[in-house]
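Annex B. Sample input.
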Amino acid sequence: MLKKTLLSVLLFFSFYTVSLGQDLYQIKGSVLNANTLQPIEGANIIGKNRYAISSKTGEFILKNIAKGTYTFTVSYVGFITKKITVNVNSETENLSIHLIEGTTSLEEIKVLGKSKERIVKEIPMVSQSVSKEFLENNRENSLMQTLSKIPGVSTINIGSGQSKPVIRGLGFNRVAVVQNGIKHEAQQWGNDHGLEIDQQGIENIQIIKGPASLLYGSDAIAGVVDIQPNKIPSKNSFNVEVNILGETNNDLIGVSAGITSRKENWFYRGRLTYRDYGDYKVPTDQINYENYIFDLHNNNLRNTAGKEADASISIGYDKNSITSETSFSNVNAKNGFFANAHGLEVRTSSIDYDSSNRDIDLPFHKVNHFKITNNTSIKTDNHKLYFDFGFQNNHREEHSEPVPHGYMPKPSDSKERVFKKNTYSFNARDAFKPNSKHDMVVGLNIEYQDNNIDGWGFLIPEYDRFTAGIFGYDQFEVNSNLHILAGLRYDYGFVDTKAYYDWFQSTINNDDGSTSYVYLQRSQDKTLNFGNVSASLGLSYINNKTTYKVNIGRSFRMPLSNELASDGVNYHMYRYERGNIDLDPEISYQLDVDVDHTSKSFSIGVSPFVNIFENYIYLNPTSSYYETLQIYEYTQAKVFRIGGEFRANTSINKNLQLDTSVEYVYSRQTSGAKEGFTLPFSPPLSGLLSVNYRLKDAFLFKNPQLMADFRITAAQEEIVPPEEKTVGYQVLNMSFLSELDVFKNNDPIEMRLKLNNVFDTKYFNHTSFYRLIDVPEAGRNLSLSVTIPF
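Annex B, continued. Sample output.
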């Protein structure tokens, strides 16, 4: 039914667009430096109700143009503005616009604005922008797998379609994921599921490495993945695109359709995405788990199939000093868990896991994430006010085969655990300039969570969580090349856990020799309050083509309900987990340095950091057991971390570009039960060499590119028992990208052919969830993606 509905919507889009597109044309062109003939990125092409910005290659497109004569103004900072007149007809050719560099006396002008690149250089914070082009060229099965090519960013993978972010070796609730200004709130504390975010249609992501609690609150103690709102569409525009994806490793079929439209002041956009995939293949036919050998049928990692259906729509208003957009989104997914990872009961199960590689048997999880956000900005004479509102409902169910455990009888259904979480968010900030030297921001963040549970298995209690923070910072311009940023924040929050008793009786042997049958209490009614200060001080110095940044910060993180009050069996990890109600908030101090040198054909950069945790929270294995399961308890320790990233880029010629990056993190616990050990899921030394070669146009192929990524990862000898060491590996991925000029007077079709793990290498990713049970990464995979604009 869903597939028929999706097909109907796509056909409607297609017919509607074709009807609108009759007798409409487009203007293509490129903006070049008249002296050097090099492309100019960011040039403005402005006409009546028409607007475009030149790309990295200097190219631009103006769509939906009727026949007639038009005048446009082409401008770019440092060049003489040029006016052009274009006669649009069926034989319109590509334009080549040459701008002449201007000779302007600085004493006679007043700079009213700065480029985005210049603004990034002046901010001391270590961050990296991820463009739409990067996302499209490197798209993988999940958003975080796509971003893992960024130095310092890795993932905890759960199967082929799910992953969660790790920044410089820290993940889970230490990394804040922000979308449309609102922190994404799901059940991200768990090891066994990923983000409920549709990566299709995202245009820009800002990644902050290191503590960002000053702006985003306590969960940003390790960094931020900020998925920023898409740019507002130009007036009188209408665009539709359909993306079709197929993959061989897990027989994935996916389709995503997006629409964007604007008249004068009102605009809207929407997207539908559907993905269906089977069990993925690994380059081995056996898995060794708990000293038991599991044979794999046709190399399929049984029961890792899944399906996902996403929908989003937004409506916005933009006029003069007011911009507002309200977005609705829903992500619904059902994913199987590798059957042998959910305890050892699968050995006696009656389920035929090898009957089909597309069915989703027990154990599996279902998740539905519904989100409403509103982003409003209001400009006044010297202030710009921002308001963000958000509501999220995350409903997650874990289903497993009902079997008795200990004193628990056999349950009546498969619904092991249910988490129902409602989150209400509000952000407000005021950006203003008291004078020409200061850019100041003051603001507040408020968030309330209500989490309920159900099912026959207990792990964490029901809880309420409230956080509120106020902050302010000032970016002071000492001179045009030296900027200082100083900020302060105070957060207050509480966690209110609810009492829980087993639904079955356990047998207790009393001291007098008698026996009692009691409903054991797993959690209690308890309210815990937390409050603390975050601070940041940094500077940025620009010396010609080299930028130096130094930032030092103090941040903190509130403990989570699972860290405070968990008390149950986690069958995905085959262990018993117990919280600690006496945990203190994590306190972190970090020094970040970034040096970047960029010239016309070469760039190089290094980003070292030093990080000290006063009381890092982690799950520690003990010598105690509960019904043959080892008990893990949350505890705290002092931790020292150091590391960083190195990056370099060069253009050998206009067609060949080389990129390389290296990342490394060293962690050491300096107190506690695991003193002298590293931290769990610590990524090893890793390097990435990328080659991009632009080919000549041929037949229908326009702007073809051949790309190769060679990942070299060292062995990880530093582990925390019961983790196991991971051997090093090398993996080659290759891609062919091109535009297909199929339909005259329409945008070209974008095609990407990608071959991952070219040599079907068997290797283990140390930050993968399934690595803990001897499951290697996916084998060779050929994928074809086609994006069709209308």
